[in-house]
Design a protein that fits this description.
Elements lengths: L9 E6 L5 H13 L3 E6 L9 H8 L10 H6 L2 H6 L3 E7 L1 H8 L6 H8 L4 E5 L3 H5 L1 H12 L3 E2 L3 E4 L6 E5 L3 H12 L10 E6 L4 E2 L5 E2 L6 H12 L3 E6 L11 E4 L3 H10 L5 E4 L6 E3 L20 E3 L3 H6 L7 E8 L3 H12 L3 E6 L11 E2 L1 E5 L2 E4 L3 E2 H17 L1
Parallel strand pairs: 1-2, 1-3, 3-4, 4-5, 8-11, 8-13, 11-12, 13-16, 16-17
Antiparallel strand pairs: 6-7, 9-10, 14-15, 17-19, 18-21, 19-20
Helix pairs in contact: 1-2, 1-9, 5-8, 9-14, 10-14
This protein binds cytidine-5'-triphosphate.
Length: 405
């Protein structure tokens, strides 16, 4: 595959205070491995956790710490720091720094740079779960999103400083790198040369020639993922159940009705590098569909429908001798999203499960937005509420990063 890289990209990395600052040392290494140059800015609080010496050594750059330092200001000045970058990353972004950003404060070098920059900004919040869940922090995060700032994470997990679990852990350095690449278009077509199979939409299981069992899936999420993978350069086959959406441009689309047809179409395209099984496949079909329209008999009760189990396409692919390098499934849940998602990961032999809550009140089924949790062997990452297109873009970037790393 083409190696995705950030070569020639200038990253201004702002490190604020928090135990997760130690991870930004790894982030510097990962960014530089991919060819980026990293110019670090540290807040005063950050220096309580890691030293400018370590940051300077890893970045091979001067470390900027002071708004009023004669040396720093003469060297570049905060306006130039703010402009001479292709991307500004804030990792970790503490609750305090987010609050200052949301209010346009410029009381130190980091905040002055953030206020002055006209470059894309990506922040990776990290804090105690209670601080993340505080209404003020959530409000600030939303304000920042509304201002066009890209927010990655935080993830769920154990906190470094206590045995507490909850949402607040900084996104992993590689995820931050993937988001940076996606933002910079540096890895514009990192999936060039890769093949992908995507299933989408519902299946229709016939009862007789005019009636069928179906579900409310619109195919929007699956179609968006097929398009996002193609945008990153993959050669995509979309196997779609009956939907009203147009076939995405530049993608081979195979139309099927039933789960069995969908399975056959998918297996016919193996081997493939990537499989993303998004379809809401009917778990059951009618055991013996009638060849003729079933007529109602006046005065007689209708014959009960005998159901038979459908093949599980994801599970078949996940355990296939030609198993794709990366197998991604979805988990449509209405409760216990995390537990059920994890169980599904194991059972179906998937590398990633995109778990979402499809309770009617979420409006996911048939709607245009989606709040998903990405479950892998490494843990769970809760993505914010996004449009289905945004979920597709982020998932495609994650897939590219997984295959690249
Ligand atoms: N899936 C599939 N073939 C099936 C059923 C499901 O490929 N016959 C895939 C879906 O495309 C999705 C994942 O399996 O990627 C999860 O589907 P879901 O319906 O949520 O899970 P189930 O396996 O049906 O489990 P449960 O009934 O416990 O929710």
């Amino acid at each position: 595959m083409e190696h995705m890289d950030l070569s020639g990209k200038r990253i201004l990395l702002i490190i604020s205070g928090g135990i997760a600052a130690y991870k930004s040392l790894d982030l510097i290494r990962r960014l530089r491995e991919r060819g980026a140059s990293v110019r670090p800015v540290m807040t005063k609080a950050a220096q309580e956790f890691i030293t400018p010496l370590a940051v300077g050594a890893l970045s091979a750059s001067h470390v900027y710490v002071d708004l009023f330092s004669r040396e720093d200001e003469q060297d570049v000045g905060h306006i130039r720091l703010a402009r001479e970058a292709d991307l500004v990353i804030v990792a970790p972004a503490s609750a305090d720094l987010m609050a200052k950003m949301a209010h346009g404060m410029a009381s130190d070098l980091a905040t002055a740079v953030l206020l002055a920059t006209d470059r894309p900004v990506l922040i990776a919040p990290a804090m105690n779960p209670k601080m993340w869940a505080a209404p003020a922090t959530l409000r600030n995060a939303q304000t920042l999103r509304n201002d066009g700032i890209h927010v990655i994470g935080p993830a769920r997990g154990e906190m470094a400083e206590s045995n507490e679990a909850g949402t607040g852990r900084m996104a992993e350095p590689l995820e931050i790198v993937a988001a940076a690449i996606a933002l910079l278009d540096g890895g514009a077509r990192p999936l060039t040369g890769k093949t992908a199979i995507v299933t989408s939409g519902p299946t229709h299981e016939p009862i007789d020639p005019v009636r069928y069992i179906a579900n409310r899936s619109s195919g929007r999420q699956g179609h968006a993922i097929a398009a996002a993978l193609a945008t990153l350069g993959a050669r995509v086959t979309l196997v779609s159940g009956p939907v009203t959406l147009p076939d995405p441009a530049g993608i081979e689309t195979v139309h099927v009705e039933t789960a069995q047809e969908m399975l056959d179409a998918v297996l016919a395209r193996l081997p493939s590098d990537i499989a993303v099984m998004v379809a809401a496949v009917a778990d059951w079909r009618v055991a013996t569909a009638s060849g003729q329209k079933i007529k109602k008999q006046p005065g007689e009760a209708p014959a009960p429908l005998q159901l038979a189990e459908n093949p599980d396409i994801l599970k078949t692919v996940g355990h296939h001798p030609h198993r794709p390098t990366l197998v991604v499934g979805f988990a449509a849940e209405t409760e216990h999203v995390e537990t059920n998602g994890r169980a599904k990961l194991e059972r179906k032999g998937a590398d990633l499960i995109v778990a979402n809550d499809v309770s009617p009140e979420t409006g996911v089924m048939g709607g245009s937005r989606n709040q998903v949790n990405i479950i892998s062997a490494g843990g769970i990452d809760a993505w914010p509420d996004l449009s289905k297109d945004e979920v597709a873009e982020r998932l495609a970037a994650l897939i590219a990063e997984r295959l690249g790393g």
